[in-house]
């Protein structure tokens, strides 16, 4: 029987790849993110199994909009993939300096990476079926930092959240896991900030000498979301080509 998956960040990059992978396996997918035109294009690409709802998941109102859409379109859901996120640290307003700037960056990253996931998961919990699957998206930065402090810290906050979700919902057959990717290309994550020098350095840190791609993460997410993965829960699973080993 077809399941229904809600994928935040589903209009681009990793979230879109997860949605495409799940839809290709027969699931219905609900895409969410802030930009309606991006979501519409993504849903169009996936086909009739996809619907979308534009929502800012940093807000409770955004989570309520996703709940309403999912309730109306599917009634109940089976998979929550909370891929919305990013690193806002470099986007602080130019007029902020010193501690004001630091405070802005930390608050923004906590809102973008922690609260979008918390709002999505907690908002949808009332309609999540038994044997459901919750996927959160962390980063290699949660283990080794990324130079800003706030991004890695905000991702690390998701690890105990998944462990507590697993404890809370495990008796119903629901699993909660975290995927922590390394460097993944073909996303909007880095915007225009990636240089050839940094790319070479990041690829050089891997054992397989290649960047990750959204399909790598989607394949892992799809397996974690599958019935076969029912005994894997409360885990943080890395996909980084061995980069954390630090070469
Ligand atoms: N790419 C990498 O190398 C990498 C590495 C480690 C971890 N990650 C993590 O992987 C996840 C997916 O990122 P990505 O690489 O696929 O980058 P991406 O293409 O920039 O995807 C981020 C998505 O989040 C959505 N989003 C941002 N703010 C939102 C909000 N307030 N409410 C709802 N949706 C929001 C964006 O859509 P809108 O702008 O339309 O809202 C976008 O679709 C993120 O959590 C990221 O931190 C990425």
TrEMBL record:
Enzyme Commission number(s): 1.1.1.-
Classification via CDD domains: SDR_c (cd05233)
Record keyword Plastid present: no
GO molecular-function terms, A-Z: oxidoreductase activity
Entries under Pfam families matching the protein: adh_short_C2
Record-annotated Ketoreductase domain positions: 3-187
Keyword field: NADP, Oxidoreductase
Keyword Isomerase: no
EC class of the enzyme, as a word: oxidoreductase
Family: Belongs to the short-chain dehydrogenases/reductases (SDR) family.
Protein name: SDR family NAD(P)-dependent oxidoreductase
């Amino acid at each position: 029987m077809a399941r229904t998956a809600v994928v935040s960040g589903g209009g681009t990059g990793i979230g879109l790849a997860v949605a495409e992978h799940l839809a290709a396996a027969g699931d219905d997918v609900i895409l969410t993110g802030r930009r309606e035109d991006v979501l519409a294009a993504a849903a169009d690409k996936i086909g009739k199994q996809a619907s979308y709802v534009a929502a800012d998941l940093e807000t409770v109102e955004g989570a309520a909009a996703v709940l309403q859409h999912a309730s109306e379109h599917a009634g109940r859901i089976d998979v929550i993939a909370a891929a919305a996120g990013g690193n806002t640290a470099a986007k602080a307003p130019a007029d902020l300096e010193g501690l004001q700037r630091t405070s802005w960056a930390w608050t923004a990253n906590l809102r973008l990476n922690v609260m979008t996931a918390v709002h999505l998961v907690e908002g949808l919990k009332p309609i999540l079926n038994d044997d459901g699957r919750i996927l959160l998206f962390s980063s290699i930065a949660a283990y080794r930092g990324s130079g800003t402090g706030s991004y890695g810290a905000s991702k690390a906050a998701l690890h105990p959240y998944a462990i507590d979700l697993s404890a809370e919902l495990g008796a119903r057959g629901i699993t909660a896991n975290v995927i922590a990717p390394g460097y993944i290309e073909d996303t909007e994550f880095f915007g225009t900030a990636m240089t050839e020098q940094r790319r070479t350095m990041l690829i050089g840190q891997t054992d397989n000498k290649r960047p990750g791609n959204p399909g790598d993460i989607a394949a892992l997410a799809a397996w974690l979301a599958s019935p076969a993965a029912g005994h894997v829960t409360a885990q943080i699973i890395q996909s980084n080509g061995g980069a954390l080993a630090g070469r």
